[in-house]
Specification:
- This protein is mainly alpha-helical.
- The chain has a single domain, classed as MetI-like fold (Orthogonal Bundle).
- It is 73% helix and 0% strand.
- The chain contains 14 helices and no strands.
- Helix 3 crosses helix 14, helix 8 packs antiparallel against helix 11 and helix 9 packs antiparallel against helix 10.
- The longest helix has 44 residues.
- The radius of gyration is 26 Å and the shape is globular.
- The two termini are 45 Å apart.
């Protein structure tokens, strides 16, 4: 090899020829590896710490309150002179508001995802999708006051007997809040379906609507169902909307027109500082938090199972 050729050698060739450079690169990669490991360890440690705190306080609560009374009781008055610790009214309120939110978010989110994926041209998609996702960036306290001061008065003109605090208004606003989550994740799942499946459907004479509903949606089923379940988890864990607009009256009812209380709203109520730490009343927030954690964790497990069970593999 001529001297001119050696001068033109690539940087990787010179690096291989330099033991000190290889040593520096190896040390740098070692530091990067440990930094990434510590970041992963931090997230795992944080989750473990949350679980430990919830478990310790929950077991302390259950030593004084039988678990059957907690899970199956129909009265929740832990701050009264004669306390009752039946969590079913809180669970019912959480499920009611979340169900209303999903009724709003799932159809609207799926239809918008179908439009963005199958009908909108790329220029329109680049504009509409970010605008739609702006809804996810609005603070939830703003949604709460929007539900209380705008949506509820409008609904009271249409729905007779609707109380000032109710489950219907917050449920509708919560559905608007989680709509971008359903739309964005579902649209991503449909965009992952190979173009060849669509072209094959068109070649057989199917219309765009038939292709969307009978080819694309079944092929993206795992991603769409995962989006639905993640949106349900988000609705169950929402706090400020229900704390502001749903009221703080735990009721065992399916009536969306009356005030109710959710698990997250109760945690906010007790966490304001009026309840002394270490008391049985204070430990109720950890018991309710553990129940909420187990519910959302179960939904996430179902989401992961559905993604693995119905995932389509394309060559």
């Amino acid at each position: 090899m001529s001297p001119s050729t050696s001068l033109r050698a690539s940087p990787s060739t010179r690096l291989r020829a330099s033991p000190s450079a290889r040593l520096r690169a190896r040390r740098f990669e070692f530091l990067i590896e440990w930094a990434l490991f510590l970041c992963a360890l931090l997230s795992i440690g944080t989750t473990a710490g949350i679980l430990v705190v919830l478990a310790v306080e929950t077991f302390a609560f259950l030593r004084e309150v039988p678990i059957t009374d907690f899970l199956f009781g129909t009265e929740w008055t832990p701050l009264f002179a004669t306390p009752r610790f039946g969590v079913l009214p809180l669970v019912m309120g959480t499920v009611l508001v979340s169900a209303i939110a999903m009724v709003v978010a799932l159809p609207a989110g799926l239809l918008s995802a179908i439009y963005l994926s199958e009908y909108a041209n790329p220029r329109v998609r680049r504009v509409i999708k970010p605008v739609l996702e702006i809804l996810a960036g609005v603070p939830t306290v703003v949604y709460g006051y929007f539900a209380l001061l705008f949506v509820t008065p409008v609904l009271q003109r249409v729905v007779p007997g609707l109380a000032g605090f109710n489950a219907l208004g917050p449920g509708i606003v919560m559905g608007i809040m989680i709509l971008p989550l359903v739309s964005s994740l579902s649209e991503d799942a449909m965009q992952g379906v190979p173009r060849g499946l669509r072209e094959g459907s068109f070649a057989l004479g199917a219309t765009r609507m038939q292709t969307s509903l009978r080819v694309v949606l079944p092929a993206a089923f795992s991603g769409i169902t995962a989006a639905f379940i993640l949106a349900a988890s988000r609705a169950i864990g929402e706090t400020m909307i229900v704390a502001i607009a749903a009221g703080q009256q735990p009721r065992l009812t399916w009536n969306p027109l009356v005030p109710i209380e959710t698990m997250t709203a109760y945690i906010v109520q007790v966490s304001l500082g009026d309840t002394p730490q270490g008391t049985l009343e204070y430990r109720t927030i950890f018991a309710v938090g553990m129940l909420l954690f187990l519910g959302t964790f179960g939904l996430n497990l179902v989401s992961a199972w559905l993604r693995g069970r119905y995932r389509e593999e394309y060559a």
